[in-house]
# Entry
Amino acid sequence: MSEEYKNLSIDQLIEALERSGREPPLALIKVCLARRLELRGRLVEAFAEAIDDDWGDPDDVRWYRAVHFGRLLIAFRERAALPIFARIYSDTFSYESLIEWFEEYPAYYGPAAIDTFAGVVRQQDKQIQDEEWDYGRDMSIGVLEQIALQYPATRQEILTFLRAMIPDLGADGSLDWDEEELGIDEMWSSIVSTLAILRDADSADRALALFDADFIDETMLSRDEFLESFTAKRSPYAVHRFDILELYG
# Structure
């Protein structure tokens, strides 16, 4: 019952969260939501610290505290936590397990998160070899996709950004770029997949040129699937909403 938690101090709430293991009591989550204004500043500090946890013992219940802190900050739409999420999604090498927990949930921030995740997509992760897939960048494209789907007023801004990520066509209709600077196949596949889901006809010629140049992973998105996306009914599974009470319920 929430009575067990409602009179705890902020530090005691933080401790209760970090000692709650994989599945904190729903009553604790509800109290945290109710005390958002009191909790948010301290929670941002705790989250920034927790993402670098190293408890040694794999069974230590505190391994999950960063997950709970981050999910609550998403539920709060706490903007002060966005630089922490940028750090996580920018460094797959260090934070892959956290990215797996958060996935596309930061889309719940809505328009406020666009610059953060567009910044992750733009940057080159210096800790990962150029030929390797960057999970954090890929998932950031997914976050932008979800923002565009859930907040239609952002669609044009996100499309403009994604279009700018792929090269223009030359006079002969081929991609106008230096092949040594092509980057990671999976990144192009993710961008083109998002452009298809958002039904961006304006970038279709350049997307098809990426298929022609064999820079799209057709196990992820085939040329036929890309073309069909402009006429088929949009699948309901494309929208992944975040509800923290449902998540912990």
